[in-house]
Write a structure and sequence with these properties.
With 124 residues, this protein is mainly beta. The chain is built from no helices and eleven strands.
Length: 124
Amino acid sequence: VRLVESGGGLAQPGGSLRLSCVASGFSFSNYDMSWVRQAPGKRLEWLCGISRDGRHTYYADSVDGRFNISRDNAENTVYLQMNSLTPEDTALYSCARRSPDAQTWSAPYDNDRRGRGTQVTVSS
């Protein structure tokens, strides 16, 4: 199982970034996926999730209305479009594979694999 994120970088407050996560080593279309982030000194934070068929999405309050998760099963890729960024969004962003046994979305143990992440820094 491999999850490789890209698209991070430096953004200005109010700006946008689009992250990508390419999956390999498993049947991508059979798994729900999530994005999580971790800022220095803070806990891992679940941001959003998408069902395996892409029809259903879920968001944490902190990003609802600003971030959008999507996926392309033909490309084994999940995306995170981030808009209206603020310095509080500065963190290491990772995609995660949701465990088939998960009952919820936002608990750390709901995910059984996570990529190494891509750094997002929001600063003027």
